[in-house]
Amino acid sequence: MRLEGISAAVTGGASGLGLATARKLVKAGAAVTIIDLPTSQGAEVASELGESARFEAADITDVEQFEAALDAAEEAGPLRALVHCAGRGARIRLVEKDGRPGALEPFEDVIQLNLIGSYNALRLGAARMAKHDAVDDERGAIVLTASVAAFEGQIGQIAYTASKAGIVGMTLCAARDLASKAIRVCTIAPGIMDTPLLGRLREDVRKSLEDSVPSPKRLGDPAEFGALACNILENPYLNGETIRLDGAIRMAPR
Ligand SMILES: NC(=O)c1ccc[n+]([C@@H]2O[C@H](COP(=O)([O-])OP(=O)(O)OC[C@H]3O[C@@H](n4cnc5c(N)ncnc54)[C@H](O)[C@@H]3O)[C@@H](O)[C@H]2O)c1
Q1: pTM over 0.70, yes/no
Q2: List 8, 160, 167, 189, catalytic entry
Q3: Is residue 252 part of a domain?
Q4: What CATH number is attached to the domain comprising 100?
């Protein structure tokens, strides 16, 4: 897909991996709608990115808000690309240190945001793309964000791992489901990326995380995620696949 001139939406686009993707898309000439929480820095980053970026405040777990943000994205033209980055983790142990069973509510919240949110991104994004004429034999492409935790969940990551493994599981199924509409779906499974979340870590903790990456021995640059998301959108033969972006890291149990 040629990115120049298309309308693209990026959820979680106000920060971290989403913001890096929005930057790359703007640079490639796309009209970009950043969809993020009203409390995010979305308005500031959209104005910094210039005229081809706009911010639409929405909680993607709310279908009406998500739909309204996608409507706004379509004011810039038919939606051709959706990069879904909104997500977060939660720390729960199956049996907590005080002997109580792990809480149910944070598990449900993370599944709601990460997994059901990704299902919403797929169905709401694809239904729009399916209505448009194909360009160069495709109507659109959707990129989801999993994590290496989908494959090597660490202690305390039960909810996060379940949600991200669900995203990996949906990827091929979604690509098959949307094949007749000429819409592609891929997922990126990042390792440890240098986003604002990591910026708050102590220097020694950060150093030990860097040492755990085989090569290159550093955290991932969000720009590397943005570049891969754009590569996926651009390359018509990439479909139904989850790509690890992780410097060959394999997470230890803790
Ligand atoms: N940073 C990492 O090391 C890493 C590694 C693996 C996977 N990931 C995944 O990448 C994605 C982005 O992570 P990040 O590090 O860029 O985080 P981040 O916190 O910098 O950005 C996430 C953005 O999502 C937005 N968001 C959260 N809930 C939302 C909601 N309900 N509706 C709309 N927007 C919402 C936040 O406001 C924020 O701007 C997440 O899905 C995360 O699980 C990150």
Answers
A1: yes
A2: 160
A3: no
A4: 3.40.50.720
